[in-house]
Amino acid sequence: MGYVFLQVALYGLAAAAVGGKALVVSALIVSKATAPGRSILAFTLGAAAFCVLFASVELVLLAESDLRAGSNVGAFIDLAIGVLFLFLGVTAVFSRETPEREAARRAQAEQAASGAVGAMLVTGVVVQLLNIDALAVLAGGLKEIGEADITVAMTTTAAAVLIALMLVPYYGPGLVHLASPQRSVHVLGRLTDWLFSNSRMAEIVAGFLIGSIFTLKGLQELL
Questions:
Q1: Fewer beta carbons under 10 A from the terminal one: N or C of the chain?
Q2: pLDDT tens digits for 45-61?
Q3: What is the rounded CA–CA span in Å between residue 197 and residue 148?
């Protein structure tokens, strides 16, 4: 059981590491929303609802498959995740950042972060849908849970831990705001500026690092 949760932690942290879009929106909510706490909660709940639905469907499909019967499905899922991230890393290497593109991304993020509390539920779902690389990692983590010989209660707990770790970029800025309401605006503002200025490098590092880990993991399981 401990091994399962170790794997879940790996996948959850990897998914969180590529949640830059969500982190930016959540950080901007702190400085722009009239009720930052409620807006971030709604933003997180929207993403969480989608992740729970995604996880429920995948776990049911895995339960009906022959994943536990010694097939290579799990290895191919890891390999696919690795190849996806390597592709994203290579794409980022050859992309060219311009002030206009950065300004456009900032404007989109600020617009997403300035909605009413109710609208933030929808924003959470949309941002999670756009974060396809995090969803790919989520699928890999759910695969680890699905192929483990554990009870339904443990399966539910492991999936909840996976989703909670994955969503750290959504609710993390909210926790910072709760801890220090005055300083959080300045700290998260600097974080947002850094993310916008270094988004290409972050994509390259995450793409090659996470891509290599999951590619090697998939190949190791196949060989």
A1: C
A2: 999 999 999 999 988 88
A3: 41
